[in-house]
C-alpha cells in the first residue's frame, strides 16, 4: 500500500514546511519539537492520562510540523530495527489502536503506585510504557510523545523520572523499548524487558517533601 504520509516518489513525511529533503526536514523537525517539549516541561498539559490526553500531547509537540498532529495513523506500519536484525516490532493494527491504547492506559491508571516498592514501580512502569509504545498510535513521533506522557504521569504519582536521563540516552531507550516489545506471532517470545526495567529503575527519583 502506498504510504499517504510521504511525498510522491520520496521517503520524506509530508510536513507543514513543504520540505522534501529528508535530512533538512529532520533538522527542522527536531528544532521545533525540542522547543515544544521544553514548553511542556514548564507547563504540562492537564488531563486524565487517558488516550485523549496522549493525543493532545502529540498534537502539542508536533503542531508546527504535521497537519495530522494528534491524530492516530490511518495505515499499518513496519519499521526495520537493527536490534531485531532488520525485523519490525508488530505494532497494533490500525483498527485496534484506540482499543489497545485505552486498555493499557486503564490498567496503568488502576495501579496504586504509592503502595509498591521502587523495584515494582520500575517493573510495572516499564511494562505499561512498552505496551502503549507497541501500539504506536501515530505515524511518527510515538517515542517522544509517550516518554513525555509517561514522565508527566510519574510526576502526578509521586515518583518523578529523570527526564535528562531519557534525553541523553534517547537511542538506548528506543532500543530498550524495541527489545521489550519483541513478541512475534510466528517467532514467539523474544522479549528482553530487563534493559528498560533497569533504565526506569535508575531514572526514578524520590519525591521531595
What Rg do the Cα atoms give? 17 Å
> So what's the overall shape?
globular
Strand composition percent: under 5%
* Contiguous uncertain segments of 5+ residues: none
CATH topology: Fic-like fold
Q: Quaternary status of these chains?
A: single chain
Strands ordered across the widest β-sheet: 1-2
Distance from N terminus to C terminus (CA atoms, Å) equals 54 Å
Identify the notable features of this structure and list them briefly.
mainly alpha, single chain, two-stranded antiparallel sheet, Fic-like fold, 209 residues
Verbal overview:
With 209 residues, the chain is mostly helical. It has one domain (22-203): Fic-like fold, CATH 1.10.3290. The chain has helices at 22-42, 51-62, 97-110, 118-135, 142-156, 163-168, 170-180, 194-203; strands at 183-184, 188-189. Strand 1 and strand 2 (188-189) form a beta hairpin. The N and C termini lie far apart (54 Å).
